[in-house]
Amino acid sequence: MCARKKVITKLLELTYPFHDGFVAVIFMKYGYYGQVASKVPPGARILEVGSGTGRMLQTLCGRAYGVGLDISKKFLLIAKERLKRCPFDLVLGTATNLPFRSDAFDAVVTFTMVHHLTDKEKDEMLEEIKKVSKLYLFGELDKSWCWTVLLLRLIGGKSVMRKEKLEEHGFVVEEWRDMGGFCLVAGKARRT
Predict the structure, then answer these.
(1) What is the pLDDT of residues 2-23, one digit of tens each?
(2) Could you give the CA distance from residue 192 to residue 8 in angstroms, rounded to a whole number?
(3) Could you tell me the residue range of the domain that residue 11 belongs to?
């Protein structure tokens, strides 16, 4: 069973041409997706939680295989077209209830998704990630008071990613690095 879409998901579906045609293109041009993708072990079976229209999975095509999971059917249909030559399955689902067995993946990836979750949902997501993989790789918003975060808060974004949150859930943070733009941090955390 899939959770009900949030208002932010509906808003993103309405504005995705702007994000997909402008913001995601900038992320690709400046290598933000690549900074996270480069941490994925070659040949790894990965799960991207909140895969949206498939831009991160597109970056991973040829390096990894696995599954993209999103709460939006509309985004999954766009991703299906974008990824037709890539070894990724697409699944409708939610970050707080991953429909996969324990240790099903070599790594879980998120990219600019976590700020859409409440603190309770972040807790649930991290427990689910910990269940399905030992390795968590991410590109997420980190700074509370930068222009990107303030804009997202205006449209319903929640709190940003914090190292302490990962540590509370039994992850050891091995990397936490500023990506150099959009208030993004690239990270690598491992389940203890």
Answers:
(1) 456 677 677 778 877 887 888 8
(2) 33
(3) 7-191
Looking up tokens 């600019």, which residue turns up? 112
1 is a domain residue: no
3-state class of 51 per DSSP? coil
CATH of the domain at 31: 3.40.50.150
Calpha distance 79→190 (Å, rounded):
28
- DSSP notation for 26-52: HHHHTTHHHHHHTTSPTTEEEEEET-T
| Residues near 61 by beta carbon (within 8 Å), at least 6 away in sequence | 83, 85, 86, 87, 88
CB-based contact 141:112 (threshold 8 Å): yes
Residue for token pair 């240790």: 103
Amino acid of residue 72: S
How many whole angstroms separate alpha carbon 136 and alpha carbon 107? 6
47-92 pLDDT, tens digit each = 999 999 999 999 999 999 999 999 999 999 999 999 999 999 999 9
Helix, strand, coil % in the chain, rounded to nearest 5? 40, 25, 35
Phi-psi region of 101 (alpha: psi -120 to 50; beta: other; left: phi over 0): beta
Instruction: Let me know if residue 150 belongs to a domain.
Output: yes
DSSP single-letter state for residue 41: P
